[in-house]
């Protein structure tokens, strides 16, 4: 089975997303986080599905049904999620 590794920064992003959406209800927050995690597992199985980011050894993937992007890189046994960013945020270095 392919693995998904969430960096500390990505875990902090998930916590911030959870904090934000909990204001609208815990079920809503749980649903969004689950959708994001499922997208990570999908990418572990098809790691080259997301387009490469120019000038970086990273890729991006838009999480279906949300405005969130997974910024990730390939690792030998799957993917490493570097960040989880809102698509409207200035997430490029």
List keywords for this structure.
alpha+beta, YaeB-like fold, 2 helices, 4 strands
Describe it for me?
With 93 residues, the chain is of the alpha+beta class. The protein has one domain (3-86): YaeB-like fold. Helix content is 38%, strand content 27%. It is built from two helices and four strands. It has a four-stranded mixed sheet. Helix 1 runs antiparallel to helix 2. The termini are far apart. The model has no long low-confidence stretch (mean pLDDT 92).
Task: Give me the secondary-structure topology.
Blueprint: E1 3-6, H1 8-22, H2 26-45, E2 59-62, E3 68-75, E4 78-86
Parallel strand pairs: 1-4
Antiparallel strand pairs: 2-3, 3-4
Number of strands: 4
Radius of gyration: 13 Å
What is the total domain count? 1
Classification by helices and strands? alpha+beta
Query: Strand-and-helix sequence, N→C?
Result: EHHEEE
CATH-derived architecture: 2-Layer Sandwich
Side-by-side strand order of the widest sheet: 1-4-3-2
The rough form would be described as globular
CATH topology heading: YaeB-like fold
The CATH fourth-level homologous superfamily? RelE-like
Overall helicity? 25-40%
Please, how many helices? 2
For the report, how would you describe the main beta sheet?
A: 4 strands, mixed
CATH class: Alpha Beta
Q: Which residues sit in consecutive blocks of at least 5 with pLDDT less than 50?
A: none
**Content of β-strand:** 25-35%
N-to-C CA distance = 32 Å
Averaged pLDDT: 92
């Amino acid at each position: 089975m392919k693995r998904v590794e969430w960096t500390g920064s990505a875990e902090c992003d998930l916590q911030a997303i959870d904090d934000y959406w909990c204001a609208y209800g815990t079920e809503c927050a749980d649903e969004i986080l689950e959708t994001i995690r499922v997208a990570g597992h999908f990418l572990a199985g098809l790691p080259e599905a997301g387009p490469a980011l120019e000038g970086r050894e990273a890729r991006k993937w838009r999480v279906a049904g949300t405005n969130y992007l997974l910024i990730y890189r390939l690792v030998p046994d799957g993917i490493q999620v570097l960040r989880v960013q809102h698509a409207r945020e200035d997430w490029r270095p």
